[in-house]
Every structure is written in structure tokens, then in C-alpha cells.
Amino acid sequence: LDELLIIYNDIVNGIPPDLPSTASYFSYIAHQQKILASKQEISRLEAYWRKAHDNHSARLSLPGDLKQGSSKSIVGKSVKMLLAREYYDAVKKLANTEGITMNTVFLAAYQLLLHFWTGQKVITTGTPMSCRNNEEFARTVGYFANLVPISIEFPADFTGVKLFREVYQKILGA
């Protein structure tokens, strides 16, 4: 939208639009490849992820209450649901009170649901994370996301507030 405002103001003022230059998506890819070519950086990242997911099984043991049909298919289904305004407002208020994002609240709720369904003490889910952490690429158009595993351990004495804070800290650490 910033670009549209610049173009509009320039046209209104009778001057040719002059947009600031931005890095190309290919520059971003080259930047990522440079990071991944660094053995020191790879070692640092590997150590972080090994520590974050040490001794955690990524396999969910979901109860199998539905029988699979005779023909196997990779076609899935989607269910769209609208969150009632009162629940949306409650989630937003909770997120604001705890100083976290609504995404964190929903991710924590999802992990809690999986914990209750499976009885597993550690739940690992993938969540998309923005990779626009370099100012050079802030205005570049392209897909800047990675799917990141977030593992949460559920001790016997966990509380909702502790869960929200742990999920939030794991997201920030990723």
C-alpha cells in the first residue's frame, strides 16, 4: 500500500512516480544459500534444533475411530468454520492480556487438543514462520516462510498461562 500512496501523490503532484528500489526475490534466495553454505551457521542451527527436539517423538498416536475405506486416497477434506464474534473477542482479549499473538493462542489450543486426544506428554506441530527478518527484504514480493516444528511438553501440573507463554517462547526462539 505504501507504493500506491507514493504513486498517487506523485501523479497528483504532476511528477513521474519514483518508487524506492527493493531487493529481488533472487537476492533473497542467494542470501539464504550463503547462510546455508556456512558450516558454522549450519552447526549452530543443527545444535539449536537438536536441543529443541531432543528425545521427542514427532509421531502422533491419534485414536483411530474411523475405518479406512477399501481404496486408499491422498485426497483430503477441509472444514471451514467461522469463529463466533464473542469467541473471537475473548481470544483477542486473552492474547492482549498475556502479551502474545492470537496465533499463539490458537497453536497452544491445537497442541492441547492433540495432547488430550493422544495422551502424549510431548506434542510437536509444524507452523509457518515468516522469514522476513532482514530489512533488506522487507519490501520484496515473494514467499518468505518456513514450516517450523514447535514441540511442547505437557507436565502434569501445566496451566493455560504457562502453556501460552511456553508456546510463545518457542515461536520466538524458532
Give an overview in words.
The chain has helices spanning 2-12, 25-37, 39-52, 85-98, 102-118, 160-173, and strands spanning 122-130, 145-153. The model has no long low-confidence stretch (mean pLDDT 82). By secondary structure, it is mostly helical.
Keywords:
single chain; 48% helix; extended; two-stranded antiparallel ribbon; 174 residues; 6 helices; mainly alpha
Total helical elements: 6
The N- to C-terminal Cα distance equals: 29 Å
Strand order of the largest sheet: 1-2
Q: Helicity, in percent?
A: 40-55%
Strand content: 5-15%
Q: Report low-confidence residues grouped into runs of 5 or more.
A: none
Sum up the overall morphology in one term. extended
The helix/strand series, from N terminus to C terminus, equals HHHHHEEH
Number of E strands: 2
Mean residue pLDDT: 82
The main β sheet shows up as: 2 strands, antiparallel
Question: What is the alpha-carbon Rg in Å?
Answer: 22 Å
Given helix and strand content, the structural type is: mainly alpha
What is the gist of this entry?
This protein is mainly α and 174 residues long. It has helices spanning 2-12, 25-37, 39-52, 85-98, 102-118, 160-173; strands spanning 122-130, 145-153.
Question: What topology does this entry show?
Answer:
Elements: H1 2-12, H2 25-37, H3 39-52, H4 85-98, H5 102-118, E1 122-130, E2 145-153, H6 160-173
